[in-house]
Amino acid sequence: MKRNMRVLASILALTLALSSLTACGSSNNEAKPSDSGSNVSADAKDTITALLPPVSGKFQDKFKQLEKEFNELYPNLTLNIEPASWEDMTQKLDTQVNAGSPPDIAFIPSGGIPKYIQQGMLLDITDTATPEMVADYDKVPLEYMKNGNGLYGFPAYMEVHALGGNKQFLEEAGIDWKKVQKDGWTIDEFREAIKKGVVKEGDKTSRYGFVFATAGVASKDYLNILLKNAGMPAQFNTDLKYAYTSKNFLEVLKDIRALIDDGSMPKELSSVDAGKRWNMFLTGQTMITGKGLATFENNANENNEKIKAKDGSEVKGSIPVDYIVLPVPTFLGEKQQASVAVDGYVTFRGTKEPTAEHKANVVKAAYFLASGNVAATTNNDLFAAHITESGRKAAETMPLNRNEDNKAAVETLLQQATPARPDIPTDLGAKAIKMEDEVIVPKLQALIAGEITPEAMYETVKSAAVKAFGEDGVVKE
């Protein structure tokens, strides 16, 4: 939240009252756990390790403070946090996993859970997380951290994958963005709208109607976000048949190509990464951008202040921008189903079964990071909705300068969020991830670059799906 999100704002000073997690009790590694599996004697030492990316702008700057606060809360416990960038997070984690010694906690998208279950490296905390901890979370995001009957960590946020528009450009193009926020739009309506946002100077396009990052860590996002609004909220339908062999998949591919062929998106879209996409938005080179996260409003506001300050700290060539949250268009008469990123603090184990005492300590650390003041501060920085009662309460005293129309739009989209699918077996989930990495993403890049047709990509995906899941394991229409 996944994933990539990853142009993030400055974080407020993190504070944590010692009383915020009193429901968790104290723990260590020597005494036997209580009936709940969470409380052991208070004098045994234990160390919990965590591999964490820059969840928000200055999150990593606060690691020493977080380690100190956790130790103050649990004097017998030490939290060691290793930083990682978004770009090398997966590589670092996989290296440790493959060596059989992963960190106790890693911040990853919930979609990665099946992969690590398949490798036997996730720690099921169902019997260790206390009822008070579980009850603190909203039900929907917590479900994303489950697979089958297991719970594999705590969510940090449930962030909507929307689009973002420049208010001035939208209004100049005659787009009723408030109506779109409320009622949504179809792909045909969207296609016509972004045509109006294009500005050309001779043969050169100075402003595009729409730009989406499709390179680097954002390569998976574009197609996945669109497919959810085309009747495919997950890679498997409720009968556990692979869904991307549906004819709707082909229609989405055709529309992806059409937006480029219209001239509403750059021909060089396949080379646009997340950083370039955001730079193009702030410098007025596009009317609408995607993936649009709630935190981008905060980022735009901060850049606006830097422009006013005239100190040269703003993005070079940038203009003042009023950021507007917009829904992703729907396809083929299907209902709006918002794509959400539920990323969080996932619990790992090594090749040996951890002791009950260490497991309880890992749960305490994961909950410390994913609730209360820590979660409130991080989510406020991201403009992400709070998903814990403790976070909501802590956030009441934290100032937040946010567009009320955008806040309402995000709340509407969260109500339309695609449901979690813990029913998808780990072996199918792992195969789907492999399909995405090895077949879908490379072919999508080729499609966007104009090297293959939508029909060619569709046939390739169908063939690979049948090979991976069998003739009876895919949707047939």
TrEMBL record:
Top-rank taxon: Bacteria
Cross-referenced Pfam families: SBP_bac_1
InterPro entries: Bact_solute-bd_prot1, SBP
UniProt keyword list: Cell membrane, Lipoprotein, Membrane, Palmitate, Signal
Signal peptide: 1-25
PANTHER family registered for this protein in UniProt: ARABINOSE-BINDING PROTEIN-RELATED, POLYGALACTURONAN_RHAMNOGALACTURONAN-BINDING PROTEIN YTCQ
Name the record gives this protein: Extracellular solute-binding protein
Species assigned in the record: Paenibacillus profundus
